[in-house]
Amino acid sequence: MITFVTTRAKGPVGEWIWGKYLDWLKSEGGYKSQAEFARQLGIDRALLNQYLNGRQNPSKANAEKLAALGPEIYDLVGIPRPDPALEQLERVFDMATQEQKEEIIRYALHLVGTLEDG
Question: Model-level pTM?
Fold first, then answer.
């Protein structure tokens, strides 16, 4: 049996997180604390309470952690959603040598037609 605890979640972010917490409780099959939920997300429990109470919105870094619950967190806090193509390009770029990075940049500029003469 799942026991639901009432909350005073405030604001769109707090209400969204509270709904995701309730969903998580259901998926876990029973009562789990908010501290366990915060650990699962990789954020501090006190910070989770700040979000739930509407006292603070997540930083970009914490919005990325909360996005594991759903990408709509970006819209709620006014942060642009990550571009999957850009994320893939960043991973490739991080693996490249300096020479390869310069070649990638030249090729990308050529593809979009902004390669300067000279």
Answer: 0.69
